[in-house]
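Researcher: Here's a chain I'd like modeled. Treat it as a single chain, no partners, no ligands.
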Amino acid sequence: GRTIPNNQLNLSVSLMDLQVPIQDALDAPRLHTDGAEPIQVESRAGEATLKALQQLGHEVTESGGIGGPGHGIVLWADGKHHAGGTDARGEGKVMGG
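Model: Modeled as a single isolated chain. Structure tokens:
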């Protein structure tokens, strides 16, 4: 759907640039824009985040949820370690082995 590119970008930035653990990255509140205002922001981002975006001049629409669930596995460069995560927005499960 329409939110996949934004969700993938947010997840990738969290994992690679910010070094956020996979589960925390999947659980993070989402935002979405189709390239123009308003910005849709999940309500669980919190009132302070919504107000901060508005103070920066953005038109913000609060949303209960944005997009479908995401799931992922992170493999470390050493090839010996991995971690998995599943999005609380869906019904997925993660199993280790």
